[in-house]
Amino acid sequence: MTELRRRGFTLIEILVVIAIIGILVALLMPAVQQAREAARRTQCKNNLKQLGLALHNYTDAYGVLPPSVCMNLATAGSANNAGWSIHGRILPFLELGNLYASVNTSIGWDLQMAIDGLKIPVYACPSDPYGARLRDPGPGKPRIFPTTYGFNFGTWFVYNPITGEIGDGAFAPNTGHSLSAFRDGTSNTLLASDVKAWTPYRRNGGPPTQGIPSLTEFPSVVASAAEWKDTGHTEWADGRVHHQGFTTSFGPNSNTQCFNGTTAYEECDYNSWQEGRKGLRGVATYAAVTSRSHHDGVVNVALVDGSVRTISENIDLRVWRALGTRQGREVVDQF
Q: Does residue 4 have a pLDDT over 80?
């Protein structure tokens, strides 16, 4: 009688197969991650496109872009969170008219519970791991989500509440620019860009007496600011530059160091003085609020003409600053 022999895998063969599968998975994972990031980057650009369209529709309705914040400087002081942001003013043009109707932009946003815990997806880049981290300002105030898109406040100087002088960007306090004000060309001026949620910053240490500090000088300039926070870009409704804006003092994704006691933070922003705080008794605001993203080596931007671009973090700083001015008359190279 012929003996039937049963064929099976040896332990060594099974281990070899498992090892091969592990290698294939290891080779596949970076490709999967890259595909996912490509999809997130595309969604990020779509968000910026929607913001650009909303701002153009706002301009069609009112003739000008919205002010970064509206403040009554005739009063002795202004509430800390009185000024609504650009994000808040364009809600009707993002198909959020019902939300806009439920708030009053002439009253501080931190007194209005209609925005409590309300996440607006178009305000958050899907690549930012902190974009969904809720901010709780304290009892009696609405919990609020970050924004990872900042609007262009220009190079460095933002606002002087005494003289009314404003910076050279697309947005400024108490001022709305018409499209004709962009003499550099709407295709050569930044409208909005990526910023990182929960960015550390220092504030209320100004005004500085010098021009834009270099990267080596920046830590000492920032150290003069009295208050350290780790909550930059955490309040989409807030109209101050460290929450809703960026400046082109430094190039995209720059490391701008600051300190909190003995701890050094490589990515830090600076606002010399909160715009309009203390009303007529306030001082001028200078800001180094850097455009940053969680996209590898680049940031996404919207231009004033409504187009969206991806810009390398290695862009020449002179070109980046030229893109930040509305009428600097610079010659902008290819970017």
A: no
| Structure confidence by residue, pLDDT tens digits, 134-168 | 999 888 889 999 999 999 999 999 999 888 899 99
Main-chain phi, psi angles of 25, to 5 degrees: -65, -40
Q: Locate 161 and state its tokens.
A: 């509440």
Give the pLDDT confidence score for residue 30 in this predicted structure. 65
The domains of the chain are located at 38-324
Closest CA to 87 of 245, 270, 252: 245
Encoding tokens for residue 114?
A: 């209609």
Note the pLDDT of residue 246: 98
- Report pTM: 0.88
**What is residue 76's predicted lDDT score, i.e. its pLDDT?**
46
- Report the C-alpha gap between 171 and 333 in whole angstroms: 23
Kindly report the number of other CB atoms within 10 A of residue 137's CB atom: 17
